[in-house]
Amino acid sequence: MGVVYGAGMSDVAGKRILVTCADLFMGPPVAAHLADLGADVVTDFDDLRSPDEAGDLIESVGELDAVFANFDIAAYGAATVDIEDEAWLEGFDALVHPLMRLVRAVAPSMIKRGSGSIVAMTSSSPLRRMRPHAVSYVTARAAQNAFVRSAGHDLAKYGVRLNAIAQNFVENDSYYPPSIRQNERFVARLEREVPARRLGKPVETAELAAFLLGGESSFIFGQVLSQDGGWS
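^ that's the sequence the OP posted. Answer follows.
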């Protein structure tokens, strides 16, 4: 009888995985899916904006096999000449700095062990011109993606994987709540702009996250994977 690949429990079964901002954005569906697959899911609900929070969190939770770095902020719109310093800085404080600090805090133990996976939940908005022009938001998301690319390539030599899911047009309460999904103008935009002509399901992102967090993606380093129905 031949080998049946993919049979049995998921590759993340038994792995200890941290999910940040577990009550926001893609935290709930990813945490639930990982638990269904048999992972030991550790959830945190703080935004980790303070400089010491990420390091304190990693120290408090102990050894981790993987981390799902999930951060969000409203996609605030502002043309270039209308950018305000406070909103500009808030995007980096909410999205970029917590991601860097979390990776910086958890990487040493993974490097010592020679394995580990970190998946950042980002956005594909920087990968294509976005209208309306939410310049500040898109720039912060682009910085996340750039960090994943650069730091992911740096960590590869230690066997530590850092990748990102760059998402757009997926059902979630942060960016596409029911009030938007039921709007006729949005439905028309979806059919016009998204090749798949539908919104993605949260479980589709959760399945991709599980793949990247597990050992089946062991040769993927520093990549930003679009999950947006072909939009980007």
